[in-house]
Each structure stands twice: as C-alpha cells, then as structure tokens.
Design brief:
Layout (H helix, E strand, L loop, with lengths): L4 E7 L7 H17 L4 E3 L11 H4 L8 H12 L7 H13 L2 E10 L2 E9 L5 E6 L22 E2 L4 E4 L8 H8 L5 E3 L7 H14 L2 E4 L3 E3 L15 E10 L5 E7 L3 E7 L1 H7 L24
Helix pairs in contact: 1-4
C-alpha cells in the first residue's frame, strides 16, 4: 500500500426494482461517506436495482406464473447497461465526490443479465468491471456466467484494489488470481448474511494478508412493490453483516446487523506489511516452480 486510507462499507436497502431511485440512494450515501473522509466506498452485491431474492426468483424454476415473469421482466428493464446512462450516473457520483466507488449492479447485456461489480475511479473512469463467475443456486435462473475480466486488481493512489462477489469468494483459484495480481484491499460484496460468511471473511483476510471490505445485502419484504410475488417468511429477508477486517482477520468495523449504516476504517500500510512477514500467499509463501495459475480473459 502507498499510504493510509479511510474506507467505507455501505449497508442499506435499495429502492427495490427502481434503478434511478436506487442510484439516487448511491449518490446520497456515497456523499455522506465521502463527507466523513472515505476515499473508497463499497456498496452491496447487486445493489442496483436490488438483489433477486429466492423468495420470488425460485418461482422461475418450474413454469413461472405471470407475476414472477413480470417481476423478472421488470428486473431486466431496471438493470444497468455498461456503457450506458446508469453507469454514467455512477461515474458522475465518483467524480463529484472524488472517491473510488465500488457498486454491485445487475448488468444487462442484450438479453442476458449478469451480476457485476463496477469500480469507478475518482475521475469517473471505469477502472474495474467484473462479472460474477458462477451464480449460486437460484441465481442461475437470473444471471448468466461471468468471465475472466476484472480478475486483476487495479492500482489506486492508496493501494491495489480488487474483488469477488458473494460465493465466488469461496473459489480458491479465483481468490489466488487476485493475490497474484498484488491485491492489498479486497472487496467482497455479498448477499450471504450468515455467521458462516463472517468465518469466510476472517479466513480470507488471513489468507490474503489484505484488508477485506464486505458490504452485505439488507432487504425487507415490506420494501418490495406489492406486485412482487414473495413466498411467506419474515419481513427481514437479508440482515446484513457488513464489516471491515484487518490482514490478521480481526475486525476494524462491524459486523453490522439488522439495520442500515456506514462503516468506516483507517487502513494502515505498515500493518499490512507487518502481517505479510510470516505469510504472503503469492510471494515468499508461494511455490511458482510447483504451481501456476492462468486466467483466461475475453479477447
């Protein structure tokens, strides 16, 4: 890392299935985080326009009825094209506040949706564009498969930043692709709001010897439009658990449960360097004479 940096994890509800209103929320919350000193701000997985909960998306499995099909069509309509006007709005937010803005979006490309992580630099340029490699469970009825783009961390003025989305963080080779790119700040937006996710984040922080930011989905059934056909269950569908972790796996902020909030932490380069003295997964503790990883990228 080049220097100390203030980072922020946002845990908030989107305006479900309303892209423009949700981007308004991104602008508001990113501005608030920037006003409190953040230079890097992370939003949850698929924040724009919402994470497609299995409380309705499971209905796509077996000849979905009209209400489920209409909800999926609305998700398609409200998703983000890259490049496109909605992506331009995210770029403008990063530029206005002079921050690195990392946003989880539903990305529309022709007739297919993808689960994407967009990282805009403080000048508004798109520094990183990654599509989730393997959607999980019911997500395979919503999103297509990602590819090798966005698997190399990007250089920022404060350190090298990269990330994976939700359960692709459990894919060892995907993680190592980031490590061998010199990762220092690890972004892990997710819809996994379990205690087990916290175990994974603590392990990944220790394994990567990086700072880890995880922004977790917070969604309520009552926040969905009434025409969305949700199956019975508690109002709090996804309870968050956002956190910021040090390279030794200890918490710097969070986890935050059951409510909206913005977590901040100061990331110290000396702490990262000290924690890599004993273990560096892609450095002195690596055996490139024995192991080699090749990442295939489009084109």
């Amino acid at each position: 890392m080049e220097r100390t940096v203030n980072v922020a994890c946002v845990q908030a509800e989107p305006v479900v299935l309303d892209r423009e209103a949700t981007i308004d929320r991104v602008a508001e919350l990113a501005g608030r985080a920037a006003g409190d000193g953040a230079e890097l701000v992370l939003f949850p997985e698929a924040f724009v326009p919402c994470f497609p909960s299995n409380r309705w998306a499971r209905g796509l499995a077996a000849g979905a009825g009209p209400a489920v099909r209409e909800t999926f069509a609305r998700l398609v309509r409200e998703s983000v094209e890259v490049p496109g006007p909605a992506a331009d709005r995210l770029a403008a937010i990063a530029r206005e506040h002079g921050i690195w803005l990392a946003t989880g979006v539903n990305e529309r490309d022709n007739g297919t949706l993808y689960n994407a992580l967009l990282v805009h630099a403080r000048d508004g340029s798109l520094a990183l564009h990654h599509r989730k490699l393997m959607p999980t469970n019911h997500e395979r009825m919503v999103w297509g498969l990602g590819d090798g783009r966005g698997m190399t961390p990007v250089q920022t003025p404060f350190g090298r930043v990269g990330g994976l989305i939700c359960w692709e963080n459990l894919m060892p080779l995907a993680r190592f692709a980031l490590y061998q790119g010199g990762l220092e700040i690890y972004l892990a937006p997710t819809a996994d709001t379990s205690e087990a996710w916290q175990d994974s984040m603590r392990h990944i922080a220790r394994e990567s010897r990086s700072y880890v930011l995880t922004s977790c989905v917070l969604q309520r059934a009552s926040s969905h439009p009434p025409e969305v056909p949700l199956v019975e269950g508690p109002d709090l569908m996804d309870r968050g658990g956002s956190a910021i972790l040090a390279p030794d796996g200890s918490y710097l902020a969070g986890p935050l449960w059951d409510e909206e909030g913005i977590l901040h932490a100061q990331l110290d380069p000396d702490r990262l360097a000290a924690d890599r003295q004993r273990f560096d997964a892609a450095g002195h503790y690596h055996r490139p004479d024995v192991f080699q990883l090749v990442v295939r990228t489009p084109g």
